[in-house]
# Entry
Amino acid sequence: MTAPRERGARTLEVTPKEAATETDPLFSADEIAKRVGELASQISADYRGAGGLVLVGVLKGGVVFLCDLLRAMEIEVEVEFIRVSSYGASRASSGVVEIVSDIGTPLKGKDVLVVDCIVDSGLTMGRILDHLSSTQGPRSLDVCSLLSKGARACPEARPKYVGFQIGDKFVVGYGLDLAERYRDLPYIAVLK
Ligand code: IMP
Ligand code: MG
# Structure
């Protein structure tokens, strides 16, 4: 039996029983894999022959989606990461978004697609887009998010590529957390 992962007195491991009682499944691993494949095909077709695309993954929530999307791409891509301040243990954005760790390689003149697992109000993505466009001067700058709740507070952050449009519910799994839990679920679920 594997030992639970401890942080202080708290157990981070989400057992199958906990997952079943604390969450309602929304998108299965198979549904996600199918949609990720469709997105990768569409993005590959759109950027084919354009001279290279950079995927900028948003840490930490976007990392699982980025890894699956990357492996399904049919064109060569470069990968960078950006890390922004998160919700912490809360379910709602503080509205103040800090760039905690910037990308490592200049993006000037390149086609850039920022990849995250979810866009909610759009404040986080709006801040990332402002930052990259003002500091990097990319040739193009767009967003791909597996999930979107509509980006009502920041319409310019609306993703060009969306896997699933969802309503106003808090979801976990496939990289998305609540206070660092549930990221390891291979499916997406609504927290009860
Ligand atoms: P926004 O700034 O309101 O668009 O929120 C974006 C960020 O908040 C995402 O990158 C996630 O880290 C987090 N987030 C928003 N909604 C959810 C959710 O339903 N579950 C988990 N994290 C979320
Ligand atoms: Mg989070």
User: Anything to note?
Assistant: The radius of gyration is 17 Å. The helical segments are 16-22, 29-47, 63-72, 123-136. Residues 4 and 15 are 9 Å apart (CA to CA).
